[in-house]
Design a protein that fits this description.
Elements: H1 6-9, H2 30-33, E1 40-41, E2 44-45
Antiparallel strand pairs: 1-2
């Protein structure tokens, strides 16, 4: 399955976030993305990372 995204991993201009769904309905609920205990990427919440 991850072979399908190999082209993205070689780019330094675009990225890809793989949602591992640490909570049910995470993608639909803002309170999960912006929660104090939300996962972090480079010291930013997932909701604010880019």
């Amino acid at each position: 399955m991850l072979d399908a995204i190999k082209g993205v991993s070689k780019s330094n201009k675009i990225g890809l976030f793989i949602n591992s769904c640490f909570a049910h309905c995470q993608s639909e609920r803002q309170d999960t993305w912006f929660a104090d205990d939300s996962h972090m990427i480079q010291d930013k919440s997932v909701a604010l990372s880019r």
